[in-house]
Amino acid sequence: MFEHVEIAAYTALxxxxxxxxxxxxxxxxxxxxQQGGAMAxxxxxxxxxxxxxxxxxxxxxxxxxxxxxxxxAGKIWVWRLRSDAPQDLAR
Length: 91
Fold this sequence. Notes:
By secondary structure, the protein is of the alpha+beta class. It has three helices and two strands; from the N terminus they run H-H-E-E-H.
C-alpha cells in the first residue's frame, strides 16, 4: 500500500517539475518512481506466499510464524528479524 502512495507522490512531483522546467527534480522523481514500482512488484510477488506460510504456521501453533521481535536499542525499541527465523520465510 505504501509503495503505491509513494508512486502517486513521485508521479505528481515529476509532473510538477516538468511543468516548472526543473529537470533535476524531474530526473530524481523519475528514478524514485522506477524504484517504487520495482518494490511494489517485488512485494506483490512475495506477499501471498509469505502470508500463506504465516497462516499455515500460525494456525498450527508454530512459534516460528513470528519472524520479527522487538528489542531495546538505547531509549527506543526496534524491530529485528529473529536469529532463528526460518530462511524460507526470511527471503
